[in-house]
Amino acid sequence: MEPQGEKPGEADGVCITPQLLKSRSGEFALESILLLKLRGLGLVDLGCLGECLGLEWLDLSSNALTQLGPLAALRQLVVLNVANNRLTGLEPLAACENLQSLNAAGNLLATPDQLQCLAGLRGLEYLRLRDPLARLSNPLCTSPSYWAAVRELLPGLKVIDGERVTGRGSEFYQLCRDLDSSLRPGSSLGPRAAEAQPWVEPGYWESWPTRSNSILEEACRQFQDTLQECHDLDRQAIDSLAKAEQALSPAGTASSSFVF
Prior knowledge:
By secondary structure, the chain is of the alpha/beta class. It is about 25% helix and about 10% strand. Strand 8 (about 160) and strand 9 (about 165) form a beta hairpin.
């Protein structure tokens, strides 16, 4: 669902000012601000935000922004959330050379070409363009080939839309997609069900050691969200395997389709 209608405060043309930044961060000097949460303030203009040269973590979600010009000055920015705005381009982010995580779900990005500006960000690993739980998306996400196009354009990504595509855990997501395809109506399940095997190595679900840095809160939140998603997918997969075995047993031959 793309953002529609007027957002709260949009008619007032809310603009970021030094006073607003200092009151939200508790810092006296803009250069000293490391983390900023400016969610849902009805912002239409980023104003002096570019003066926060030390900023590493920034939440601008659920506003009415149409451009991100001042962010080009934020070379230290690591985590950025601009979900649920009115953005039609991300070009200023090409200068954010330390950016690792970007949430741009719920905007007006129409084609993968509008992500070309991110290709030079060598550290970018996490990108979200759609969020089904929050009912946020972008027009480009309606294309069946969108996911593959994003992967080709930004091969350094490890996670797209919350789904790991490379590195630890990527095989798990691929297995879930394969199971989903095999259990759709009309698909062939083969002559017999494969013997169930452990999907991950022992100790996989144990928490990783935490790292101390200025964005620890956001990193922990992302990890917990991903971990919970993996648990949910694990339970779904076990249930799907059970249904597949039942379908292939003599007592279950009458069933012809299942919902995964």
